[in-house]
């Protein structure tokens, strides 16, 4: 095995700690430094992996010998941190969303190209084994023509003191936060999305951003999608994705996934959701792509298309009518 790639982690919040556990299991990458504006948070996480701590990403980029960085800071900081890392000659794995606005995402992609580095968006659900298997089943035609896709990410979370509900930092509310995952999963399984509509539910947490929404989408191939997102209601659902086709149905769950063909019985096809395993798959794939050994599971173009889908959703929310999704080929402009 070649020497492991040296990663720096920027941002030492909750998701960064989950990534640290995945790095500990990686054969291709090691976490050697952590940067955060909170020096104590950076030190605590760095000590847990035997790495160095920095109180700014600029200091880390100047002083540490790295191959790549993983950005786990709030969305409004992604573009300038990614640009700094790319210009230092580092590959960049950036947590979702890639950016708040698509023009920023395109600029990030151009900066990566100009510096001959790899840029990708972290989208953990693409790296869940059951989701990958569902995509393969859909593409195989085993379910016939796909008619309806359903997804729900709903649970009560007190968002009153979290940056995710600060529009200046996050770009919006639950629509950009959980919705980035939902719309990316939809694109992954169904292909490009053509149009989107959004209806907002009641606000009960005294937030300045949306906390409950229902997204309706239609893929370019004609599949309807219905997505429920909420920080306020807690739907007790065993399956967070349901796919209905003319020849059967497929459910992807937290503890198991299963399929039933028309006239048949349910068959278990997976063991459910494992966050650490999904993060590990992302890291291993990213390192493999840097080595030229495998293709990226999520390209920069996928990240841009995800931002464009979220933009269309906010236009729909504001205009109260269906909106077309931007052209993913705009990255080449």
| Major sheet characteristics | 9 strands, mixed
Shape: globular
Tell me the span between the first and last alpha carbons. Answer: 39 Å
- Estimate the helix proportion, in percent: 25-40%
Mean pLDDT: 95
Strand content: 25-35%
Description of the structure:
The chain is α/β, with parallel strands linked by helices and about 325 residues long. It contains 10 helices and 15 strands. Helix content is about 35%, strand content about 25%. Strands 14-13-12-11-7-10-9-8-15 form a 9-stranded mixed β-sheet, with helices on one face. It has a 6-stranded parallel β-sheet with strand order 3-2-1-4-5-6, sandwiched between helices. Helix 1 crosses helix 9 (about 275-290), helix 5 packs antiparallel against helix 10 (about 300-320) and helix 8 (about 175-190) packs across helix 10 (about 300-320). Mean pLDDT is about 95; it is low at about 330-333.
Give a nutshell description of this structure:
This protein is an alpha/beta fold. It is 36% helix and 26% strand.
Key attributes of the depicted protein:
single chain, alpha/beta, six-stranded parallel β-sheet, disordered C terminus
Topology overview:
Elements: E1 5-10, H1 14-23, E2 29-35, H2 39-49, E3 52-54, H3 57-63, E4 68-71, H4 78-87, E5 91-95, H5 102-114, E6 119-122, H6 129-140, E7 146-154, H7 167-170, H8 174-190, E8 193-200, E9 212-219, E10 224-230, E11 239-245, E12 248-253, E13 257-261, E14 267-270, H9 275-291, H10 300-319, E15 323-324
Parallel strand pairs: 1-2, 1-4, 2-3, 4-5, 5-6, 7-10
Antiparallel strand pairs: 7-11, 8-9, 8-15, 9-10, 11-12, 12-13, 13-14
């Amino acid at each position: 095995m070649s020497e492991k790639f040296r990663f720096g982690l920027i941002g030492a919040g909750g998701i960064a700690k989950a990534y640290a556990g995945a790095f500990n299991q990686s054969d291709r990458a090691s976490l050697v430094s952590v940067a955060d504006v909170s020096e104590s948070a950076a030190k605590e996480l760095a000590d847990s992996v035997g790495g160095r701590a920095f109180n700014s990403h600029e200091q880390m980029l100047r002083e540490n010998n790295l191959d790549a960085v993983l950005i786990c800071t709030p969305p409004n900081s992604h573009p300038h941190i990614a640009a700094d890392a790319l210009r230092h000659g580092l590959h960049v794995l950036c947590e979702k969303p890639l950016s708040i606005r698509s023009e920023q995402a395109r600029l990030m992609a151009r900066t990566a190209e100009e510096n001959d580095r790899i840029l990708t968006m972290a989208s953990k659900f693409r790296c869940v084994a059951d989701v990958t298997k569902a995509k393969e089943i859909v593409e195989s035609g085993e379910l016939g023509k796909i008619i309806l896709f359903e997804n729900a990410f709903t649970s009560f979370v007190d968002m009153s003191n979290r940056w995710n509900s600060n529009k200046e930092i996050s770009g919006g509310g639950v629509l950009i936060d959980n919705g980035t995952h939902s719309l990316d999963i939809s694109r992954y399984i169904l292909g490009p999305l053509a149009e989107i509509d959004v209806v907002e539910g009641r606000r009960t947490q005294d937030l300045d951003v949306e906390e409950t929404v229902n997204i309706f989408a239609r893929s370019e191939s004609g599949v309807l999608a219905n997505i429920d997102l909420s920080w306020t209601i807690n739907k007790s659902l065993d399956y967070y994705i349901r796919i209905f086709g003319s020849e059967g149905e497929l459910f992807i769950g937290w503890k198991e996934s299963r399929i039933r063909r028309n006239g048949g019985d349910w068959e278990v096809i997976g063991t459910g959701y494992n966050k650490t395993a999904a993060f590990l798959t992302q890291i291993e794939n990213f390192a493999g792509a840097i080595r030229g050994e495998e293709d990226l599971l999520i390209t920069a173009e996928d990240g841009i298309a995800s931002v464009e889908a979220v933009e269309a959703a906010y236009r729909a929310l504001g205009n109260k009518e269906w909106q077309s999704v931007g052209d993913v080929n705009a990255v080449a402009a």
